[in-house]
Amino acid sequence: MNSLTNTLRPYIYFLAFVVLLGGSACTMDDSSENDAPNSLLDVGHGPMTNVSEFVATLSMDTCNQEPPSLYLNPHEQRFSLAHGLSLSWISLLALRSENQATTTAQTWGLSDVVFIEDRRHDLRAMISETDDLVLLTFRHTDSIQNWIYDAHFLLRDFAESFALGEKVHHGFGTMLAPQWAEIRDRVAARVAAGKKLWIFGHSLGAALAQLAAAGLHADGIDVDVVYASGAPKVGSEAWSGKANSLLSGRLFRIANQKDLIARVPILPAAYDEFGELFESIPDFLLEPIANTLQNTRYGLVGQGFELSGGASYRSWPAGTEDAAEEAYWTELVNRFAQIDQNGGNPLDRLDQKKDVVVEYLTDHQVVNDGYSCSYHAALLGAE
């Protein structure tokens, strides 16, 4: 195998995997996130600021249901499971109509809800407030067009401040750029009253939240905290280095233990393990796209946390996540290898591998026993 083939193989692996990923994701029912239960909407509690009192309202029996109250403590900047849970539920409001989102937001003590939309690029941002906070979030992947942008993972330059003068994910940057000035100006007007700015999102929303946080902070708008759950990587190693300097100690990436989306695009350290999933791809398929590839070495931003789905969670010390991601792909490779070792019809084996991918994708959702239940388990186990 020549050096060019060795260089291109990881990208072809990734493209092939995106096809499998997208096909699996399109078969999943996400209606529970669009039509979350509303039976508790008449309670009318505002944000809680005592974490023990908030945890006392939680139950694993209702971990997939919309909570009657949220925990939002504007004086707590360190990582908080209770904030992660509460902000995840607020991010789901970006899936709803403006009237529905506003109604639910008001029961949680949020006000002045406004949406910023770009129908051409299928971007939707939501800004809301409490007495002390300005909250900015983005809708997660909710359409085929979103999936296309998710998969457009090559790095490119953008003139907007969120790029920090470096290369970022082509698809995410393309979605954010047209509405960037409006988002920046609306946020700037709201924080001018002295409120703290919190930015957060899930999946695609988490990717856009990371870019927005870096850009707003670079533009002189102070960002207090950033929560990014199920977050794909968004920028080059150079961009990540600059973003880490700007947002040091303020950005928290949270991943469920099996969440596949939170491990893409692949870090260079995990190329070999990831490539074993598609080792059968012939070399001649690699050559035609040689001229289209750019340097796609992604970096990580902020501090990483992993939810186990049980009572425990862990954080990753700086410099250790490469090894953790390598171990993640090794485990998935081993599961695929076991399917092949068991033999059987090739199509049956492919279906079994697709079932594994669906299992890992299910761990990516907020509800349907995803992040909301993982947060519940960790919070209830910690008490």
Structural write-up:
This protein is of the alpha/beta class and 383 residues long. The chain has 14 helices and ten strands. Helices cover 42% and strands 14% of the residues. The radius of gyration is 20 Å and the shape is globular.
Which fold name corresponds to the CATH topology? Answer: Rossmann fold
Shape: globular
Strand order of the largest sheet: 1-2-3-6-7-8-9-10
- What is the succession of H and E elements? HHHHHEEEHEEHHEHEHEHEEHHH
User: CATH superfamily, called what?
Assistant: Alpha/Beta hydrolase fold, catalytic domain
Number of domains: 1
Rounded to an integer, what's the Rg over CA atoms?
Answer: 20 Å
How does the major sheet shape up? 8 strands, mixed
Q: Give the helix proportion (percent range).
A: 40-55%
Rounded to the nearest angstrom, the distance between the terminal CA atoms is: 55 Å
CATH architecture: 3-Layer(aba) Sandwich
**Strand fraction band?**
5-15%
By CATH reckoning, the class would read Alpha Beta
